[in-house]
Amino acid sequence: MLDLFMQPDTWVIFATLFALEIVLGIDNVVFISVLCERLPHHQRRLARNLGISLAVATRILLVFSISWVMSLTQPVLEVMSTSFTGRDLIMIAGGAFLILKSLKELWSWLVHVETSQSTHVRTGLTVVLLQIVAVDAVFSMDSVITAIGLTSDVPIMVAAILASAVVMVLTAQKINELVSLYPGFKTLALLFLVLLGGLLMAEGFAIHVNKGYVYFAMAFGLILELCHIRLRKKLALNISADTSKVS
């Protein structure tokens, strides 16, 4: 195995897979952060760390189930002369779930629907972890299939997944704090997840959309929200200065 990682080509493949996993990790951390907001504060760190661990374990299991994953690229259903593979059906179902879940969270967030705190404590953590695993499995399907196309060496794929997991753990707390501290970031994150759900469904229906457009829109929205935060702070300072002068 050490000889494998001494080859220059291995590091090129590793860097490509690592970048792919980082992009996927951003989606996962955003989704995990939004879901953890539904839990009591003392459970959020535990749920976030368990969620990331389960997400990584899911991806590694998919890597070791290469033959099964590749079988999902074979047609299993035909509707009106259109064939659907197992992967397509997973993408459609997963995308629909992500859209419905994100819209539900967005609606609850905007209209301030409160649910019983005791219900969250009793069942929230288990439900959140199950949702994280289900959505991550959908997100991981494309990356695993792409990884198999790049290399057949399982150690390289596992190493890229574990390296990206370290980045996810290091950034998850900061992303969670931003989502909690600034309402605009949570709204932006939920809308981003709705877009991702739409992309997954489009992929399932063989409609290929460049994800770069979505990430560009997300980056633009992020910059816009940062400008709003800066302007609000500036306005608050001006009001404070005016109040001091009057007094």
How would you summarize the topology of this molecule?
Layout: H1 8-36, H2 41-64, H3 66-71, E1 75-79, E2 82-85, H4 86-111, H5 117-150, H6 154-181, H7 183-204, H8 211-246
Antiparallel strand pairs: 1-2
Percent of residues in helices: over 70%
Structural class based on helices, strands and sheet pairing: mainly alpha
Rg, alpha carbons = 21 Å
Give the CA-CA distance, first to last residue.
Answer: 73 Å
Describe the main β-sheet briefly. Answer: 2 strands, antiparallel
- List the helices and strands in order: HHHEEHHHHH
Gross morphology is: globular
Q: How many structural domains? A: 2
Mean pLDDT: 77
How many beta-strand segments? Answer: 2
Number of helices: 8
Strand order of the largest sheet: 1-2
Strand percentage, roughly?
Answer: under 5%
Membrane topology: Multi-pass membrane protein
Keywords: Membrane, Transmembrane, Transmembrane helix
Protein name: TerC family protein
Family: Belongs to the TerC family.
Q: How does this structure look, described?
A:
Helix 1 packs parallel to helix 6 (154-181), helix 1 crosses helix 7 and helix 4 (86-111) runs antiparallel to helix 5. A two-stranded antiparallel ribbon has the order 1-2. The termini are far apart. The protein folds into two domains: 4-209, no CATH class; 212-247. Helix content is 83%, strand content 4%. The protein is mainly alpha-helical. It is a multi-pass membrane protein. Belongs to the TerC family. Keywords: Membrane, Transmembrane, Transmembrane helix. It is found in: Membrane. The chain crosses the membrane at residues 12-35, 47-69, 89-111, 123-148, 154-172, 184-207, 213-231.
